[in-house]
Amino acid sequence: MSHSSEKPEISPAAKRFIIALCVICFGLTVLEFIIHRHAYFTLEGRPMFFAAYGFIAFIIVVIGGIGLRKLVMRAPDYYEAGDDHE
Amino acid sequence: MNSLLPTLLQIPGLLMVFGALLVPILPHAIRQIWMLAVIAVSAWLCWGIAPGLHMTTQLAGLDLILVRADAITRPFALVFHIAAALNVIYAMHENIRTTATAGLAYAGAAIAALFAGDFVTLFIYWELTAFTSVFLILISRSERSFAAAMRYLLMQVSSGVILLAGAVILWHSGQGLSVQALDASTLAGGLILLAFGIKAAFPFLNGWLQDAYPEASVTGTVMLSAFTTKLAIYMLALCFAGTEILIWIGAVMTLFPVFFAVIENDLRRVLAFSLNNQLGFMVVGVGIGSELAINGTVSHAFAHIIYKALLFMSMGAVLHRTGTAKASELGGLWKRMPLTMVFCIIGAVSISSFPLFSGFVTKSLTIGSVAKDGYFVVWMILIFASAGVLEHSGIKIPYFAFFGHDRKFEVKEAPVNMLIAMGIAAGLCIAIGVAPQLLYGLLPYAVDYNVWEAGHVLGEMQLLLFAILAFVFLMVRGLYPPEIDSTVLNTDWFLRRLLPRLTMAIARPILAVWFAALGQAKKIVLDGLYVGERASQQTGLVSGVASTGAAAGIFLAVFALLLLILFSI
């Protein structure tokens, strides 16, 4: 992981991993139409609910974390250095 | 005395506490054998204790229940012993008597607490866990760890004092002292819930966990991760099963740590946030209180102790070899520490609830119970939090330590004993995941839930794999936040920064008035002495000049006398 938010270079191994992941995700999407899911809630029974929710939840967690950083991130020596580093 | 020691040794866990007393004087190799033997014998003794009352006594007119077991006691006792044994193996490479002694006594105290049948007995072990475990933080021998240890002790002891206050009120109200189902809306119940809540790291009471655990030694953090919080969960399950407020408290607990874990740079602190999140699932289960939910809580606590220890062990091994656990300084260790990497990934997929790993077969019970009871919002929160778990424990921990940017560390693989401990923990994660009936057989109720239902497995796989896809998307687009060396403010800020400031703001004017009054009083006394001295020189009653110290002494003596008189009225 780089220390900036620039687009990182993707290694061949990472490319293979991404392709494999996409294939698996495609397979899970196909299975959605084959396997019946017992749902307790209406939303749970919607096609691809878990896939969409997992994807969106992950994005929200990360973006929420970025927002939280603005609120709670301080210098590494915040508590040791006293008031000057707030 | 002759009969007291054998009696005490019949109390589960106390064998380990007393056994710890010998640890400092034993040579290194014999010490390891001794500790493992004591844990094995203690486990064997505990295994034989069936649910029910086993040992009672009277003390100062109080009926105390020294040994009592419930349907959920056995699985907790078993996993506490497993954790204690893993800790011993993991720490075998180091020759630190303090850690070994404190670790064994701490585990013993926690096990003894499981069997405490009344709140006074529980209070004793509750505080004993605090006093023994604080040494695991102090052993880091830095100013930072000392301060964290004191804050940790303050919170733990406060929890004990609140527990005792609740117990006294309970006893006074005629309900007795026995550990029993309590009503959280009563004063006694509320205080006891608060005491448990501190140790279970409820929202706003959680700061001590993320503050103290990462400040402990490499081995100390692993020991700490197992006992205190799960003891609190156990007690919540005994006393507050079905208390609805816990569903919402637990839901919040699952949610907020995932955001903090994203931005935390210290990977052991990330795991401390993750621990908090996992406790939330257990608290939700207690709040639901159904048979399925309690099974979920107990089984989740069991599996969690093992995979969380595994994750802490892997990060401890990284810290041991590289000298850092900061994500911003780590990366590329898979080449140097491949076995540690494999064990870490097993812990990561276990906590993320991948099918065939322990987290899946245990967390599913809790989430299933929430769905069965129709708590839609809570269910949505738990599913959301599951994606959060994947983010910080499933991806962030292994990725930043072992992959990511290669920092070119020239380090060796973890010591053999660490690898053995991690290997055993990893094996248990897989064994529970593949053959959950091994764990289900220990649960208080028959498990009426099919975790292998195809639709359920598919849903879980979709949730996790598409969340990983989101990670890849963010990475490829350069949107994933960089790791930054920083302090992330947590609720311990109230104790570390706000409280001292408030105290000073209130104390400053009071102290100013106090010192002004003291100055005036001193002046009056000195003037009086000066007049007295002048008079004595004339009358010969007092000779010499009184010093300022003596004057202050006279003033304090008069003040003390005044207080004594006031006190005696």
Explain the overall architecture.
The complex is a heterodimer of chains A (86) and B (569). Chain A has 86 residues and is mainly α. In chain A, 62% of the residues lie in helices and 2% in strands. Chain A is flat and about 60 Å long. In chain A, 15% of the residues are buried. The mean pLDDT of chain A is 87. In chain B, 71% of the residues lie in helices and 3% in strands. In chain B, a hairpin with a 2-residue loop joins strand 1 and strand 2. The longest helix of chain B is centred in the C-terminal third of the chain and has 48 residues. In chain B, 53% of the residues are buried. Classes of the chains: A mainly alpha (86), B mainly alpha (569). At the A-B interface, helix 1, helix 3, strand 1 and helix 4 of A face helix 12, helix 17, helix 20 and strand 3 of B. Strand 1 of chain A pairs antiparallel with strand 3 of chain B, so a sheet runs across the interface.
Distance between the termini of chain A: 28 Å
N to C succession of SSEs of chain B: HHHEEHHHHHHHHHHHHHHHHHEHH
| Order of secondary-structure elements of chain A | HHHEH
Oligomer status: heterodimer
Helix content of chain A: 55-70%
Low-pLDDT segments, ≥5 res of chain A: none
**Biggest chain pair contact, residues each?**
A-B, 55 and 64 residues
Number of helices of chain A: 4
How much strand of chain B? Answer: under 5%
The computed structural class of chain B is: mainly alpha
Strands of the biggest beta sheet of chain B: in what spatial order?
1-2
Query: Mean pLDDT of chain B, nearest integer?
Result: 91
Q: Which sheet architecture does the biggest sheet of chain A show? A: none
The helix tally of chain B amounts to 22
Euclidean distance between termini CA atoms of chain B = 44 Å
Give the overall pLDDT of chain A as a whole number: 87
Q: Quick one: overall form of chain B? A: globular
